[in-house]
Amino acid sequence: MKRLRVLMLVHAHLIPPAEATAEAALEAPWRTEFDVARCLEALGHRVEIVGVADDLEPIRRAVRDSPPDVAFNLIECFDDVAHFDQNVVAYLELQKIRYTGCNARGLMLARDKAVAKKLLSYHRIRVADFAVAPRGRRFRRPRQLQFPLFVKSLALDSSIGISQASVVDSEEKLYERIRFVHESCGTDALVESYIEGRELYVGVIGNDRLTALPVWELFFEQMPEGSHKIATERTKWNAEYQERHGIMIGPAEDLPEGMEARLQRLAKRVFRVLYLNGYARIDMRLTADGQPCIIEANPNPQIAHGEEFAESAHQAGLDYPALVSRLLRLALAWEPARAG
């Protein structure tokens, strides 16, 4: 690959310090940004990091002053609104700037978990029964939603707002948790049937020709009796909690014969149904009787060196520089104006 001018878009508060080291980055909130920037530079590309908060002017100015060959998009929200990330991508499309990751339409569909579930259900892909509890309106539990139920934000990712209390077994706890999501997350609540099973993740890379990565699993080795094996906010982000409860992530073990290939095919179907491109992680549960159920699709997941997506790619034969280069090639090949 030739040397590229890469405009790296990051959240303004996640710009890696100039003096940052790889050791310091391991525990830093800007770990992904640091890893990607270092890798791009090591590959010989010229990198300009631009912080974005609530104004598109920094992007416009950077594009005007030094037109990039491609933008490496690490933006996950805009003005603290999660689903506004699609608007940043739409702006790049209107400016005819190539970018890594998912297109604006795919982001819109996947970020709204209810819309995504409806689309998947239409295509006969199994999802949990669900209902939306909007803010400012009274919610009545539909009859088909039987306890236990799982309550989370309709729009937020990264397990934000999810805890053991997200699994509810009574009307009182259900409405209490809905109020919590409304007030603490500031979004509508998604109420869905709780699916007991193994927590599995399948990464997918590509635009038209897709590659499904090896199946990864979230392991719960030492959870207290009565605890639900779910990806809570502490499970995902609290290292002490992870160590105390033996929570690890790695290649899925002891899958039934042919199951990995089946899950990979399913992940690619979800990717296509939701009009995703670039890269995404498909989260699913595998029940005791061997039936997969899609939890959600996560376009543009975390790609820090050593995190699950990068590790799964490495197992598939893509080391970190190869993964970053692959994302750049996909960005340069994508045609944003295509109809579908």
Q: How would you describe the overall organization of this protein?
A:
The chain has 340 residues and is of the alpha+beta class. It folds into 3 domains: 5-100, Rossmann fold; 127-193, ATP-grasp fold, A domain (Dna Ligase, domain 1), CATH 3.30.1490; 196-333, D-amino Acid Aminotransferase, Chain A, domain 1. 34% of the residues lie in helices and 21% in strands. It has 12 helices and 13 strands. The strands form 3 sheets. Strands 8, 9, 10, 11, 12 and 13 form a 6-stranded antiparallel sheet that branches. The protein has a 4-stranded antiparallel sheet with strand order 4-7-5-6, covered by helices on one side. A hairpin with a 5-residue loop joins strand 12 and strand 13 (292-299). Helix 2 (31-42) crosses helix 12 and helix 4 packs antiparallel against helix 5. The longest helix is centred in the middle third of the chain and has 15 residues, at 171-185. It is globular, with a radius of gyration of 20 Å.
Helix content: 25-40%
Q: Uncertain segments of ≥5 residues (pLDDT<50)?
A: none
Distance between termini?
27 Å
How many beta-strand elements?
Answer: 13
- How many distinct helices? 12
What is the CATH T-level topology of the largest domain? Answer: D-amino Acid Aminotransferase, Chain A, domain 1
| SSE order, one letter for each helix or strand | EHHEHEHHHEEEHEEEEHHEHEEHH
Overall average residue pLDDT: 95
| Beta-strand content estimate | 15-25%
Principal-axis shape equals globular
CATH class value of the largest domain: Alpha Beta
Tally of individual domains: 3
Give the CATH H-level superfamily of the largest domain: ATP-grasp fold, B domain
Query: How does the major sheet shape up?
Result: 6 strands, antiparallel
* CATH architectural designation of the largest domain: 2-Layer Sandwich
Computed Rg: 20 Å
Q: How would you classify the helix and strand content by structural class?
A: alpha+beta
